[in-house]
Amino acid sequence: MTTSSSERGVSLGMPELPAPAYPDDVRARLEADAREIIARYPDSRSALLPLLHLVQSEEGHVTRTGMRFCADVLDLTTAEVTAVATFYTMYRRRPSGDYQVGVCTNTLCAVMGGDAIFEALQEHLGVGNGETTDDGKVTLEHIECNAACDFAPVVMVNWEFFDNQTVQSAKRLVDDLRIGRTVSPTRGAPLCTFKDTARILAGFPDERDGAVEASGGAGPASLVGLRLARGETAPARVVHPRDGGPHEEPQDRAPRDAAPHDPSPTEHLSSHDAPQDTSASDPAHPAGPTAEEGE
Question: How far is CA 276 from CA 116, 166, 186, 270, in A?
Fold first, then answer.
Protein backbone atom coordinates (compact mmCIF):
# COMPACT_ATOMS: atom_id res chain seq x y z
CA MET A 1 0.00 0.00 0.00
CA THR A 2 1.39 3.39 -0.96
CA THR A 3 0.91 6.67 0.86
CA SER A 4 0.31 9.93 -0.97
CA SER A 5 2.74 12.79 -0.55
CA SER A 6 0.07 14.88 1.17
CA GLU A 7 -0.56 12.11 3.72
CA ARG A 8 3.18 11.91 4.41
CA GLY A 9 3.31 15.68 4.94
CA VAL A 10 5.70 16.15 2.02
CA SER A 11 5.76 19.62 0.50
CA LEU A 12 5.23 19.73 -3.25
CA GLY A 13 6.93 23.09 -3.55
CA MET A 14 3.81 25.23 -3.20
CA PRO A 15 4.73 28.65 -1.75
CA GLU A 16 3.56 29.39 1.79
CA LEU A 17 0.93 32.09 2.01
CA PRO A 18 2.13 35.41 3.45
CA ALA A 19 1.82 35.73 7.21
CA PRO A 20 -1.27 37.63 8.34
CA ALA A 21 -0.72 41.10 9.73
CA TYR A 22 -1.40 42.13 13.31
CA PRO A 23 -4.77 43.81 13.95
CA ASP A 24 -4.51 47.57 13.47
CA ASP A 25 -4.60 48.40 17.20
CA VAL A 26 -1.92 45.83 18.04
CA ARG A 27 0.31 46.96 15.19
CA ALA A 28 0.02 50.60 16.23
CA ARG A 29 1.04 49.75 19.79
CA LEU A 30 3.95 47.59 18.65
CA GLU A 31 5.12 50.22 16.17
CA ALA A 32 5.35 52.78 18.99
CA ASP A 33 7.44 50.35 21.04
CA ALA A 34 9.54 49.46 18.00
CA ARG A 35 10.39 53.11 17.32
CA GLU A 36 11.63 53.44 20.89
CA ILE A 37 13.83 50.36 20.51
CA ILE A 38 15.22 51.30 17.09
CA ALA A 39 16.15 54.77 18.33
CA ARG A 40 18.74 53.20 20.64
CA TYR A 41 20.89 51.98 17.76
CA PRO A 42 22.90 53.83 15.08
CA ASP A 43 21.97 51.10 12.58
CA SER A 44 18.31 50.07 12.65
CA ARG A 45 18.99 46.41 11.84
CA SER A 46 20.91 46.14 15.12
CA ALA A 47 17.51 46.35 16.84
CA LEU A 48 16.40 42.97 15.51
CA LEU A 49 17.16 40.95 18.65
CA PRO A 50 15.16 43.15 21.04
CA LEU A 51 12.38 43.46 18.46
CA LEU A 52 12.08 39.67 18.39
CA HIS A 53 11.70 39.74 22.17
CA LEU A 54 9.05 42.43 21.73
CA VAL A 55 6.91 40.36 19.35
CA GLN A 56 7.49 37.31 21.56
CA SER A 57 5.99 39.26 24.46
CA GLU A 58 2.82 39.71 22.41
CA GLU A 59 1.93 36.07 21.79
CA GLY A 60 4.36 34.11 23.93
CA HIS A 61 6.39 32.93 20.95
CA VAL A 62 7.77 34.35 17.70
CA THR A 63 5.09 33.86 15.08
CA ARG A 64 5.30 34.36 11.33
CA THR A 65 3.27 37.52 11.88
CA GLY A 66 5.85 38.73 14.39
CA MET A 67 8.71 38.07 11.99
CA ARG A 68 6.85 39.87 9.21
CA PHE A 69 6.41 42.85 11.53
CA CYS A 70 10.14 42.92 12.36
CA ALA A 71 11.03 42.72 8.68
CA ASP A 72 8.67 45.58 7.82
CA VAL A 73 9.88 48.03 10.47
CA LEU A 74 13.58 47.26 9.85
CA ASP A 75 13.36 47.07 6.06
CA LEU A 76 14.68 43.49 6.07
CA THR A 77 13.48 40.41 4.26
CA THR A 78 11.51 37.82 6.18
CA ALA A 79 14.28 35.36 5.33
CA GLU A 80 16.81 37.54 7.17
CA VAL A 81 14.57 37.75 10.21
CA THR A 82 13.80 34.05 10.15
CA ALA A 83 17.51 33.20 10.03
CA VAL A 84 18.05 35.07 13.30
CA ALA A 85 14.87 33.90 15.04
CA THR A 86 15.69 30.25 14.35
CA PHE A 87 19.32 30.59 15.48
CA TYR A 88 18.76 31.68 19.08
CA THR A 89 17.05 29.26 21.47
CA MET A 90 15.54 32.05 23.57
CA TYR A 91 13.06 32.70 20.76
CA ARG A 92 10.23 30.18 20.86
CA ARG A 93 8.86 29.05 17.53
CA ARG A 94 5.65 27.49 18.81
CA PRO A 95 3.15 28.21 21.60
CA SER A 96 4.65 27.69 25.04
CA GLY A 97 3.66 27.99 28.66
CA ASP A 98 3.45 30.92 31.01
CA TYR A 99 6.52 29.51 32.75
CA GLN A 100 9.55 28.15 30.95
CA VAL A 101 11.07 25.62 33.36
CA GLY A 102 14.62 24.78 32.35
CA VAL A 103 16.68 22.11 34.08
CA CYS A 104 20.43 22.46 33.65
CA THR A 105 21.88 19.17 32.42
CA ASN A 106 25.45 20.29 31.87
CA THR A 107 28.14 18.24 33.56
CA LEU A 108 28.18 19.51 37.13
CA CYS A 109 24.43 20.00 37.47
CA ALA A 110 23.88 16.60 35.84
CA VAL A 111 26.08 14.67 38.27
CA MET A 112 24.69 16.59 41.23
CA GLY A 113 21.17 15.49 40.35
CA GLY A 114 20.08 17.53 37.31
CA ASP A 115 19.56 14.47 35.11
CA ALA A 116 17.40 12.89 37.79
CA ILE A 117 15.39 16.10 38.19
CA PHE A 118 14.76 16.43 34.45
CA GLU A 119 13.68 12.81 34.13
CA ALA A 120 11.39 13.09 37.16
CA LEU A 121 9.75 16.29 35.91
CA GLN A 122 9.04 14.76 32.51
CA GLU A 123 7.20 11.92 34.21
CA HIS A 124 5.54 14.19 36.79
CA LEU A 125 4.23 16.66 34.18
CA GLY A 126 3.59 14.12 31.44
CA VAL A 127 5.58 16.08 28.85
CA GLY A 128 8.81 15.67 26.92
CA ASN A 129 11.61 18.10 26.29
CA GLY A 130 10.25 21.37 24.87
CA GLU A 131 6.63 20.36 25.45
CA THR A 132 3.92 22.22 27.38
CA THR A 133 1.43 20.95 29.93
CA ASP A 134 -2.20 20.75 28.84
CA ASP A 135 -3.15 23.72 31.02
CA GLY A 136 -0.63 25.92 29.21
CA LYS A 137 1.22 26.77 32.40
CA VAL A 138 4.59 25.02 32.15
CA THR A 139 6.97 24.31 29.29
CA LEU A 140 9.77 21.94 30.29
CA GLU A 141 13.19 21.88 28.66
CA HIS A 142 16.73 20.89 29.42
CA ILE A 143 19.15 23.79 29.16
CA GLU A 144 22.88 24.26 28.91
CA CYS A 145 25.11 25.86 31.54
CA ASN A 146 23.73 28.98 33.19
CA ALA A 147 26.92 29.87 35.06
CA ALA A 148 25.55 28.87 38.45
CA CYS A 149 27.73 25.86 39.19
CA ASP A 150 28.18 26.96 42.80
CA PHE A 151 24.54 26.13 43.36
CA ALA A 152 24.14 22.95 41.29
CA PRO A 153 21.76 21.50 40.39
CA VAL A 154 19.97 24.58 39.11
CA VAL A 155 16.46 24.97 37.70
CA MET A 156 15.50 28.19 35.95
CA VAL A 157 11.99 29.56 35.53
CA ASN A 158 11.72 32.33 32.94
CA TRP A 159 15.48 32.80 33.41
CA GLU A 160 15.27 33.30 37.17
CA PHE A 161 17.38 31.04 39.40
CA PHE A 162 16.15 28.26 41.65
CA ASP A 163 19.31 26.90 43.25
CA ASN A 164 20.28 23.64 44.98
CA GLN A 165 17.24 21.76 43.75
CA THR A 166 16.22 18.19 44.44
CA VAL A 167 13.66 16.00 42.70
CA GLN A 168 11.08 16.76 45.38
CA SER A 169 11.70 20.52 45.50
CA ALA A 170 11.49 20.72 41.70
CA LYS A 171 8.18 18.86 41.72
CA ARG A 172 6.80 21.26 44.34
CA LEU A 173 8.02 24.17 42.24
CA VAL A 174 6.15 23.16 39.08
CA ASP A 175 3.06 22.21 41.09
CA ASP A 176 3.00 25.67 42.68
CA LEU A 177 3.39 27.31 39.29
CA ARG A 178 0.45 25.37 37.89
CA ILE A 179 -1.94 26.24 40.72
CA GLY A 180 -0.96 29.91 40.77
CA ARG A 181 0.83 29.94 44.12
CA THR A 182 3.41 32.70 44.58
CA VAL A 183 6.89 31.36 43.88
CA SER A 184 10.07 33.25 44.77
CA PRO A 185 13.40 32.67 43.02
CA THR A 186 16.44 31.91 45.14
CA ARG A 187 17.99 35.23 44.08
CA GLY A 188 17.27 38.03 41.69
CA ALA A 189 14.03 39.68 40.64
CA PRO A 190 10.59 38.32 41.51
CA LEU A 191 9.11 35.84 39.06
CA CYS A 192 6.85 37.03 36.25
CA THR A 193 5.26 35.36 33.23
CA PHE A 194 7.23 34.49 30.12
CA LYS A 195 5.51 37.26 28.14
CA ASP A 196 6.47 39.80 30.79
CA THR A 197 10.04 38.46 30.79
CA ALA A 198 10.22 38.85 27.01
CA ARG A 199 9.17 42.50 27.23
CA ILE A 200 11.86 43.17 29.84
CA LEU A 201 14.42 41.48 27.58
CA ALA A 202 13.28 43.79 24.78
CA GLY A 203 14.68 46.61 26.90
CA PHE A 204 11.62 48.04 28.63
CA PRO A 205 11.79 48.79 32.36
CA ASP A 206 10.50 46.37 34.95
CA GLU A 207 7.97 48.55 36.73
CA ARG A 208 7.05 46.09 39.48
CA ASP A 209 7.66 47.29 43.03
CA GLY A 210 11.03 46.11 44.29
CA ALA A 211 11.99 44.28 41.10
CA VAL A 212 14.89 46.55 40.20
CA GLU A 213 16.23 46.60 43.75
CA ALA A 214 16.19 42.81 44.00
CA SER A 215 19.62 41.37 43.56
CA GLY A 216 21.55 38.14 43.48
CA GLY A 217 24.99 37.04 42.50
CA ALA A 218 27.32 34.18 41.90
CA GLY A 219 28.63 31.96 44.66
CA PRO A 220 32.04 32.23 46.38
CA ALA A 221 33.87 29.79 44.12
CA SER A 222 32.79 31.66 40.97
CA LEU A 223 34.01 34.97 42.37
CA VAL A 224 37.58 33.91 43.19
CA GLY A 225 38.90 35.13 39.83
CA LEU A 226 37.12 38.47 40.22
CA ARG A 227 38.69 39.00 43.65
CA LEU A 228 42.14 38.21 42.25
CA ALA A 229 41.61 40.67 39.40
CA ARG A 230 40.78 43.35 41.94
CA GLY A 231 44.00 42.67 43.80
CA GLU A 232 42.34 41.08 46.79
CA THR A 233 44.10 38.33 48.71
CA ALA A 234 43.08 34.90 47.57
CA PRO A 235 42.01 32.33 50.17
CA ALA A 236 44.53 29.62 50.99
CA ARG A 237 42.38 26.98 49.34
CA VAL A 238 39.15 26.96 47.35
CA VAL A 239 38.40 23.31 48.05
CA HIS A 240 38.99 22.34 51.65
CA PRO A 241 40.89 19.15 52.57
CA ARG A 242 38.59 16.17 52.73
CA ASP A 243 39.99 15.11 56.09
CA GLY A 244 39.22 18.53 57.54
CA GLY A 245 42.85 19.09 58.65
CA PRO A 246 45.09 22.05 57.81
CA HIS A 247 47.31 21.53 54.79
CA GLU A 248 49.10 24.85 54.59
CA GLU A 249 52.33 23.81 56.33
CA PRO A 250 54.42 20.74 55.36
CA GLN A 251 54.67 19.56 58.97
CA ASP A 252 50.88 19.47 59.20
CA ARG A 253 50.47 17.08 56.34
CA ALA A 254 49.44 13.49 56.96
CA PRO A 255 52.18 10.87 56.61
CA ARG A 256 52.57 9.46 53.10
CA ASP A 257 51.76 5.96 54.34
CA ALA A 258 48.62 7.04 56.19
CA ALA A 259 45.41 5.22 55.31
CA PRO A 260 43.17 7.17 52.92
CA HIS A 261 40.38 9.12 54.57
CA ASP A 262 36.99 7.43 54.34
CA PRO A 263 34.31 10.17 54.54
CA SER A 264 31.18 9.53 56.54
CA PRO A 265 27.79 9.53 54.76
CA THR A 266 26.99 13.00 56.12
CA GLU A 267 30.33 14.57 55.19
CA HIS A 268 30.55 16.84 52.16
CA LEU A 269 33.06 15.61 49.62
CA SER A 270 33.98 19.13 48.52
CA SER A 271 33.46 22.76 49.45
CA HIS A 272 30.43 22.89 47.16
CA ASP A 273 27.55 24.55 48.97
CA ALA A 274 24.77 22.36 47.62
CA PRO A 275 23.02 20.39 50.38
CA GLN A 276 24.07 16.79 50.82
CA ASP A 277 20.65 15.43 49.95
CA THR A 278 20.84 16.98 46.46
CA SER A 279 22.87 14.10 45.08
CA ALA A 280 20.76 11.73 47.15
CA SER A 281 17.67 12.74 45.20
CA ASP A 282 18.17 9.66 43.04
CA PRO A 283 19.91 6.82 44.94
CA ALA A 284 20.59 5.01 41.66
CA HIS A 285 22.34 8.05 40.20
CA PRO A 286 26.18 7.94 39.94
CA ALA A 287 26.31 10.88 42.33
CA GLY A 288 24.35 9.00 44.98
CA PRO A 289 25.40 8.97 48.66
CA THR A 290 28.79 7.46 49.41
CA ALA A 291 27.25 5.19 52.03
CA GLU A 292 25.28 3.36 49.38
CA GLU A 293 28.19 2.64 47.10
CA GLY A 294 28.95 -1.04 46.80
CA GLU A 295 25.67 -2.11 48.40
Answer: 15, 10, 18, 10
Contacts of 269 (CB under 8 A, 6+ apart): 242, 263, 290
Is residue 127 within 8 A of residue 156, CB to CB? The reply is no
d(CA 234, CA 242): 20
More confident residue, 226 or 219: 226
The whole-angstrom separation of Cα 236 and Cα 179 is 48
Q: How far apart are CA 112 and CA 241, in angstroms?
A: 20
User: pLDDT band for position 249 (50/70/90)?
Assistant: very low
Question: In angstroms, rounded to a whole number, what is the distance separating the alpha carbons of residues 241 and 270?
Answer: 8
Cα-based angle 118, 169, 215 (whole degrees, multiple of 5): 100
Closest listed residue to residue 151, CA positions, set 212, 188, 109: 109
Q: 0.70 cut: is pTM over it?
A: no
CA dihedral 114, 115, 116, 118 (to 10 degrees): 80
User: Who contacts 109 (Cβ-Cβ below 8 Å, separation ≥6)?
Assistant: 103, 145, 149, 152, 153, 154
Question: Is the CB of residue 185 less than 8 Å from the CB of residue 157?
Answer: yes
Strand arrangement of the beta sheet that strand 138-143 belongs to = 131-132, 138-143, 99-104, 155-157, 160-162
d(CA 54, CA 62): 9
- Please give the C-alpha separations between residue 287 and each of 143, 147, 151, in angstroms, as whole numbers: 20, 20, 15
- Residue-wise pLDDT tens digits, 92-142: 988 989 999 999 998 889 989 999 999 999 999 999 999 999 999 999 999
